Amino acid sequence: MAGLKELHDVLKSGESIERRFTVRTVERISEPRSYSALKVRATRELVGASQAVFARLLGVSKIQAQSWERGVRTPSKLACRLLDEINRDPQRWRGMIGTRAA
Q1: Closest CA to 16 of 7, 27, 5
Q2: Whole-prediction pTM value?
């Protein structure tokens, strides 16, 4: 209650809130997009990776990546966040894959 009274007094006096209190601005972070089987596959094709390579890039098993593309399972929010990042800058992710001469 004391804190609320202090806030009330500051507002009533016209004094700047920032002078009396620590004010922090918090930016809202949006939720990751959801990914259907078609969107997962489109993301994989965007970076030009096989399912096995794409799975390694995401840090999941090949079976997990395949189940997303078949629509058996949906990616977790963390995986969706990573898929968002891949779609935001696919060139960067293509560079992570690299190619090796046979």
Answers
A1: 7
A2: 0.70
